[in-house]
């Protein structure tokens, strides 16, 4: 039963049992849907509309890799600020499973979170596709270019092979989950959590956009691959498996380290 008080507005209330009871499963799942929708809309939308504006051959007014990296970081910051106090602000299946492995989220909500995240991402790319359809040839051009999907080999922006992409995605997702677990571990860090998480995601994109177009988030990869065509769909498994493995390993390691510290 929810307590008769306002929940604390922090990005970590999902992990705090006294606040968790204040929100219904439906509210949590809608929050994860919205946060993932915002993340994909902001990041992928920037990649497709603004990174190479007005064209890939004449993009002097485009924002480039730096702008795309900032868009993902700012989007996750905004999502955590808006609804993080409701669901914990995961917006990413790898984060949810990593927090589960660390013992920092309630397993009852995990299936609902994963479904909500995937649906939120798909809703965002559907909106992007609808907007692109309003300009002649824009949607077809986006599909031909892979719709900002993740890839390896010929589909990697820098031509990196499968092994390099799997390693980068797993390690960077692990780093991301470890930062989330650390920055949300203590109450005094709560005000800094959205900024720390957002800047970490920005840094991760700056490192790995040339490698894989940066996933570290299966929901983001699924959302773009659906519109990207046969090649992104065929390579999608890598961007589901690697981030989840990285996130879960990070969660397990953090849990073991903290268990030793307590002893």
From TrEMBL:
<protein>
    <submittedName>
        <fullName>Aquaporin Z</fullName>
    </submittedName>
</protein>
<keyword id="KW-1003">Cell membrane</keyword>
<dbReference type="InterPro" id="IPR023271">
    <property type="entry name" value="Aquaporin-like"/>
</dbReference>
<keyword id="KW-1133">Transmembrane helix</keyword>
<feature type="transmembrane region" description="Helical">
    <location>
        <begin position="191"/>
        <end position="211"/>
    </location>
</feature>
<feature type="transmembrane region" description="Helical">
    <location>
        <begin position="236"/>
        <end position="257"/>
    </location>
</feature>
<feature type="transmembrane region" description="Helical">
    <location>
        <begin position="33"/>
        <end position="53"/>
    </location>
</feature>
<dbReference type="InterPro" id="IPR000425">
    <property type="entry name" value="MIP"/>
</dbReference>
<keyword id="KW-0813">Transport</keyword>
<feature type="transmembrane region" description="Helical">
    <location>
        <begin position="160"/>
        <end position="184"/>
    </location>
</feature>
<dbReference type="Pfam" id="PF00230">
    <property type="entry name" value="MIP"/>
</dbReference>
<dbReference type="InterPro" id="IPR034294">
    <property type="entry name" value="Aquaporin_transptr"/>
</dbReference>
<dbReference type="InterPro" id="IPR022357">
    <property type="entry name" value="MIP_CS"/>
</dbReference>
<keyword id="KW-0472">Membrane</keyword>
<feature type="transmembrane region" description="Helical">
    <location>
        <begin position="65"/>
        <end position="86"/>
    </location>
</feature>
<keyword id="KW-0812">Transmembrane</keyword>
<comment type="similarity">
    <text>Belongs to the MIP/aquaporin (TC 1.A.8) family.</text>
</comment>
